[in-house]
Amino acid ABC transporter substrate-binding protein (Enterovirga aerilata), 344 residues
Amino acid sequence: MTSKFATLALGLAVGLAGVGLGASGASAQATLNNVKQKGFLQCGANTGLAGFGVPDAQGNWTGFDVDYCRAIAAAIFGDPTKVRFTPLAAKDRFTALQSGEVDVLIRNTTVTMSRDTTLGLDFPAVNYYDGQGFMVRKKLGVASAKELNGASVCTQQGTTTELNLADYFRGNNMKYEVVAFATSDETFKAYDTGRCDAFTTDASGLYAERLRASAPDDHIVLPEIISKEPLGPGVRQGDPQWADLVRWTHNALLIAEELGVTKANVDQMLKSDNPEVKRLLGVEGSFGESIGLTKDWVVRMVKGVGNYGEIFERNVGEGSRLKIKRGLNALWNKGGLQFAAPIR
């Protein structure tokens, strides 16, 4: 038999659930509405990392992460230039996102459990699979990270890089001296001027920073990868629609590459009989509308920046200055880890 107290408790629970759903519904569109009202996307970016996010002398930004910001802007506004970039040091990036200074953080940031569960942030996708490595001068005569016992190592404060470094040397019973700096620029300059024997960061960053060395050919990247560094965009918790928009931006860029939809042929592909292409490009279904956008959101995005493969190759791939192989970032059907959930 149900008591009046149980009935009252049930009523309260239903009422609170309704309040919760209402609050969720009210907040679900907060960021997207704010971005539309401003007329631009505010994107948290690197202070300057070749291939990923760097401004030129005129303030024009380019890079892999930059193109992801432009993709979101194109999906929302149909214009990839409707984005402004806030350069953020590693120690400031999460605070800037938490405070609302930026709408999304796309800045070679490693997704970890503590970051995902304790900072009030969500990481909707992994857009680049990376791992930490080491760079040394060729004249040091070192061919493996296992030979760095007693070395001084330059690294950046407040990063997973610093923590991984400690784990690696402790795990291999080696001694080292850490030389840490607040910014990536300070860290690499210290290494380049000889203040430490080795420089450590994500492998992608090693190839990028080597380009800035006073004598790039004097340095080598050691073969060891000592960590998993899944890099991805970050958003604030409590806004599921915005998280969905960022997640499906990534998925759509991957699916576009998989289906052969490119910046050059996207208009022609609108006539395709392939049902997957039809759903991707909004010819069938209302998938864009489910995340607060128009049906042609992917068309606008691919026209603006291309598909995932085009973004990768242009900025960091073997045809770029960095000359990084796709590796783990190849599509799932090409031996990589990039695997998008389907649009259907």
User: Anything to note?
Assistant: The domain at 130-229 is CATH 3.40.190.10 (D-Maltodextrin-Binding Protein; domain 2). The two ends are 46 Å apart (CA to CA). The longest strand covers residues 132-137. The CA atoms of residues 137 and 231 lie 27 Å apart.
